[in-house]
Design brief:
Length: about 130
């Protein structure tokens, strides 16, 4: 049974940083793509970034343009963990952050642009609040 557990959320001041973790069990990072999404109160779920299990010369990480300069996705296959480093956080980044997985990187890239529709394996989320 696939389980994804997010951690690392919390309260941070504007301009601060957080690193979210997503630890997977029931599968290995190799052979699976992972994505980070968020959902703010009263808003639709939003895709942020995804990462392939296999490095490629043309890039295996896909952050969306709106967060590309501040958020970085990475993975540690040994620890079976995917990370989202978030810098220069702003109040509009306040949301519950979720990780998800798919066997297909193409599927995950599509889901990032489609608010996570079609993804079936999700974590329970970790809350991030950015406030002074």
């Amino acid at each position: 049974q696939v389980q994804l557990v997010e951690s690392g959320g919390g309260l941070v001041r504007p301009g601060g940083s957080l690193r979210l973790s997503c630890t997977a069990s029931g599968l290995t990072l190799r052979g699976n793509a992972f994505g980070w999404f968020r959902q703010a109160p009263g808003k639709e779920r939003e895709g942020l970034a995804c990462i392939s299990s296999i490095p490629s010369s043309d890039g295996s990480e896909y952050p969306v343009p709106s967060v590309k300069d501040r958020f970085t996705i990475s993975r540690d296959n040994y620890r079976n963990t995917v990370y989202l480093q978030m810098n220069n956080l702003q109040p509009e980044d306040t949301a519950v952050y979720y990780c998800a997985t798919s066997r297909s990187m193409n599927h995950m890239v599509t889901a990032i642009g489609d608010n996570g529709n079609g993804i079936y394996n999700w974590g329970t989320g970790t809350a991030v609040t950015v406030s002074a």
